[in-house]
């Protein structure tokens, strides 16, 4: 739909172009170069040397021990954890931690390590109990602590409602949550790539908080090769695989199946170690 404002601007531009001989017209023509509907300039890619490798653990994280995984000599060149739930969609809620920790990691642990084949952890039960009635992000550690202390009900007892982050679990949901609790959790040394790969190969979904840029938000494609644009915050994701031949980790987001490639994408190792802020596993 073209507004009256756009039509008037277009008319003015046509008039100015007819008067190119006038010396003051060039300044006015700058306004005509970005009419509504025209493409924005491309986002500037980040330069890897401008992002040093740093440790980003918060003080409250440091009280949690780091879990050391044994590195198998016969670890395959590439591996993706089988049997994972399809990527979900958090919509406009800031519930990434609930989806990565509960829906992706905890559901997988229950389904494949404890034989609860139909279990799906409710992201709403996690996020709505932790967000204090506001659409605000919650930490990975707070999410893990809730799962250890109170558990997570099956999603059928508390379905996800994108526009309602306030409603609380009812009696049946709370009773069901008591059956599904995290036994333990620990930090992962995410700067040691062999450790991250070893945890994945052993079947643990690695829960990751990652700094992201503008081009991550609506990313499409098999690999997020280079961040671009402004830094827009952090997202909590699940690391579900690796590929040594490509030098990447496979990330599962909670932005629906249209994001990335069917809800997943790859991140090169050299960007991973610069943008990762913390990583955990649970059992």
What is this entry, summarized?
Helices cover 29% and strands 16% of the residues. It has nine helices and seven strands, in the order H-H-E-H-H-H-H-E-H-E-H-E-E-E-H-E.
Comma- or semicolon-separated keywords:
7-stranded antiparallel beta sheet, 29% helix, 9 helices, Cathepsin B, Chain A, alpha+beta, 2 domains, globular, 7 strands, 283 residues
What is this structure's SSE topology?
Blueprint: H1 4-17, H2 25-29, E1 78-80, H3 96-113, H4 123-130, H5 140-149, H6 171-177, E2 185-187, H7 193-201, E3 206-213, H8 214-217, E4 231-243, E5 248-252, E6 264-268, H9 269-275, E7 276-282
Helix pairs in contact: 3-4, 3-5
Explained architecture:
It is a single chain. The chain is α+β, with helices and mostly antiparallel strands. It has 2 domains: 30 residues; 235 residues, Cysteine proteinases (Cathepsin B, Chain A). Helices cover 29% and strands 16% of the residues. The protein is built from 9 helices and 7 strands, in the order ααβααααβαβαβββαβ. Strands 1, 2, 3, 4, 5, 6 and 7 form a 7-stranded antiparallel β-sheet that branches. A hairpin with a 4-residue loop joins strand 4 and strand 5. Helix 3 crosses helix 4 and helix 3 crosses helix 5. The chain is globular, with a radius of gyration of 23 Å. The termini are far apart. The N terminus is likely disordered.
């Amino acid at each position: 739909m073209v507004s009256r404002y756009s039509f008037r601007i277009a008319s003015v531009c046509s008039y100015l172009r007819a008067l190119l001989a006038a010396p003051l017209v060039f300044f006015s023509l700058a306004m005509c170069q970005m009419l509504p509907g025209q493409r924005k300039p491309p986002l500037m890619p980040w330069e890897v040397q401008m992002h040093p490798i740093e440790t980003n653990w918060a003080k409250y994280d440091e009280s949690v021990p780091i879990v050391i995984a044994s590195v198998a000599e016969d670890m395959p060149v590439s591996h993706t954890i089988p049997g994972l739930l399809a990527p979900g969609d958090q919509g406009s809620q800031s519930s990434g931690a609930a989806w990565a920790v509960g829906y992706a990691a905890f559901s997988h642990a229950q389904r494949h390590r404890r034989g609860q084949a139909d279990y799906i952890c409710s992201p709403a039960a996690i996020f709505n109990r932790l967000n204090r009635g506001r659409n605000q992000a919650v930490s990975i550690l707070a999410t893990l602590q809730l799962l250890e202390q109170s558990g997570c009900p099956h999603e059928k007892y508390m379905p996800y409602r994108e526009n309602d982050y306030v409603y609380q679990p009812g009696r049946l949901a709370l009773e069901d949550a008591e059956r599904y609790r995290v036994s333990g959790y620990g930090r992962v040394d995410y700067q040691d790539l062999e450790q991250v790969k070893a945890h994945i190969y052993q079947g643990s979904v690695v829960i990751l908080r990652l700094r992201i840029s503008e081009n991550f938000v609506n990313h499409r494609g098999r690999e997020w090769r280079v961040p671009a644009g402004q830094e827009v915050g952090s997202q909590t994701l699940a690391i579900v695989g690796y590929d040594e031949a490509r030098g990447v980790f496979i990330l599962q987001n909670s932005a629906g199946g249209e994001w990335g490639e069917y809800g997943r994408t790859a991140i090169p190792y050299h960007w991973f170690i610069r943008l990762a802020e913390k990583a955990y596993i649970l059992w």
